[in-house]
Write a structure and sequence with these properties.
The complex is a heterodimer of chains A (228) and B (309). Chain A is an all-alpha fold and 228 residues long. Chain A contains nine helices and no strands. Chain A has one domain: MetI-like fold (Orthogonal Bundle), CATH 1.10.3720. In chain B, the strands form three sheets. In chain B, strands 1, 2, 3, 4, 7, 8, 9 and 12 form an eight-stranded mixed beta sheet that branches. A two-stranded parallel sheet of chain B has the order 5-6. The radius of gyration of chain B is 23 Å and the shape is globular. The chains are: A mainly alpha (228), B alpha/beta (309). At the A-B interface, α1 and α5 of A face α1, β2 and α8 of B.
């Protein structure tokens, strides 16, 4: 009985973690990959001083946001979605959706940044060759994206790794409610506080194996990329 | 050019599926009454709410979402409209909440007491004192000599508020900045007890959390108990529906009514850890309620009994 309740809860927590971080990264990819691609195309065109300046600023801002502290994101999302805040009427605070929004804000800059440099590094050579062989602009863009796809994939995996191990932001916006908004990381915090070390360690092991799988995937992607 | 479009279709399909799952979940959960209860770490950490809430949830087909923070933060959460009701323990903060008109119908639910715990060696020599204020004075004195450490919750919780009121009786305003013996943890009761156990420090704790954690705290023991200022009453306060009409007022009322009903009160009394009762119900024990700072208990109980959500 106790055993089954124990695993029940762990399963629930793990699933929620995967769902929240997975959704955030998926939506983040849908937003971040196109923007990263466009910015990747853009950065070599800046010949005029003004465009160059804009490029440099944009890149620095994105790089800053790539290291956005999750607790700060959590605080801002909290203030936006608290009932007396501007989006309070949506009633999203302390729901998985609020947690997804928090992580989305965190992962979008990561995906944009990594995609941007991946696209930027193959853009010039591939695009010019494709255009000289008679491809249209759109076709050339697809080709560049295809060539850069390992980089894009890396951006998504890195973003997922950051999201799944994040704790400060979702603690604030999710409220760490049992069976509802309790993820692997926030559960470890509360189980440690309660002295349920068996539970905390199990959750830690699950989190660690996920990190391992993520890194394994990343390494495979990188090896594949190197072989080509 | 076929491959990328396939990937795109795949991604879009996945997105649609995930959004669909969400929409469905939102729909399912909107069918159930969700009640957000902001409460103190002591009621949660002691296991009381995990014991009570499933019974209530089954009976009323509701879901109770518990935000377990300190009393100060719980009341702030409710004031901002992010909770439906609070279960807290700090008379001063509760009255401020009610006076601000954000909280309504404060009613006494149960009580237990605070105890001062500390290392078995007891360097401040407070063991057996009946006067908590005197115990604090001795801890401060031993601390100033470098012989004792006191860990404060420092999180505006009910426990922290009582602790600060005892220090202020002594005319002491302890601060981590100037006094190294006074550590401001900014954490829940469980964490602070664990810290005290590691550091061999003194702290103030509610008895319920102490009893639930006692087995893990081998370096600590109860040193002072029984002073009247250490009594620890818990109150339920509803969030004013006029301030936040979108909140689940009916659900909050149902939960509050159930907690102070015969059934709820009996369940509270029957909740035990290691054979010891952790909380003593007072909702319908009017004399005790008056004594513990609920002068209008009969009136409020009558009001709750008359409601039919």
């Amino acid at each position: 009985m106790i055993e089954s309740a124990f695993w029940d809860e762990i399963w629930n927590i793990t699933l929620l973690s995967l769902r929240v971080s997975g959704t955030a990264v998926l939506i983040g990819a849908l937003i971040g990959v196109p923007i990263g691609t466009i910015l990747g195309f853009r950065q070599f065109k800046g010949k005029r001083t003004l465009t160059r300046f804009v490029d440099i600023m944009l890149k620095s801002v994105i790089n800053t946001f790539m290291g956005l502290p999750p607790v700060v994101v959590g605080l801002v999302v909290y203030l936006l979605f608290t009932a007396s805040g501007p989006f309070g009427w949506l009633g999203l605070l302390y729901t998985p959706t609020a947690m997804i929004i928090t992580q989305l804000i965190m992962v979008v800059p990561i995906i944009i940044g990594v995609t941007m440099s991946a696209v930027g590094s193959v853009e010039k050579a591939i695009r010019e060759r494709a255009l000289s062989l008679g491809a249209t602009e759109t076709q050339a863009a697809w080709l560049v994206l295809r060539e850069a796809r390992m980089g894009v994939l890396t951006s998504i995996i890195v973003a997922f790794g950051a999201a799944i191990s994040e704790v400060g932001g979702i603690m604030i916006t999710g409220g760490n409610i049992r069976w509802w908004t309790r993820t692997l990381t926030t559960a470890i915090v509360v189980e440690t506080e309660l002295g349920n070390f068996a539970m905390a360690l199990t959750l830690g092991a699950i989190l660690l194996s996920m990190a391992f799988i993520i890194n394994l995937a990343l390494t495979i992607v990188q090896l594949k990329g190197a072989r080509r | 050019m076929k491959k990328p479009s396939k990937i795109l279709i795949g991604i879009v399909t996945l997105a649609v599926v995930i959004i669909g799952v969400f929409a469905y979940e939102q729909y399912v959960s909107s069918q159930k009454s969700i009640i957000v209860l902001a409460t103190t770490t002591s009621t949660y950490d002691s296991g009381l709410l995990d014991y009570l809430m499933p019974i209530f949830e089954r009976k009323y087909n509701a879901e109770v979402h518990i935000i377990s923070v300190g009393t100060g933060q719980a009341i702030e959460t409710a004031k901002r409209g992010d909770a439906d009701l609070v279960l807290v323990h700090s008379r001063q903060l509760e009255l401020e909440f009610v006076n601000s008109t954000y909280g309504i119908h404060r009613v006494g639910v149960m009580y237990n007491d605070f105890v001062i715990i500390g290392p078995i060696s007891d360097p401040a020599g407070i063991n057996g004192l009946a006067n908590a204020t005197e115990a604090f004075r001795r801890i401060a004195a031993a601390g100033a000599e470098g012989n004792a450490i006191f860990i404060s919750r420092a999180d505006k919780s009910g426990t922290n508020m009582l602790e600060l009121s005892i220090w202020s009786r002594l005319g002491v305003t302890p601060s981590n900045k100037t006094q190294t013996w006074y550590m401001e943890a900014g954490a829940g009761m469980g964490t602070v007890l664990r810290m005290a156990n590691e550091k061999g420090a003194y702290t103030l704790t509610d008895r319920a959390t102490w009893l639930s954690f006692k087995n893990q705290l081998t370096n600590l023991r109860v040193l002072v108990e029984g002073d009247v200022i250490l009594l620890n009453p818990y109150a339920i306060i509803l969030v004013n529906p006029e301030k936040y009409p979108q909140r689940n007022y009916k659900g909050a009322l149902k939960l509050a009514k159930w907690m102070i009903s015969e059934e709820g009160q009996n369940l509270i009394a029957s909740f035990k850890k290691e054979g010891e009762t952790l909380f003593i119900p007072i909702a319908r024990d009017f004399n005790k309620a008056h004594e513990l700072g609920f002068p209008e208990q009969e009136k409020e109980i009558a009001w709750y009994d008359a409601q039919n959500p």
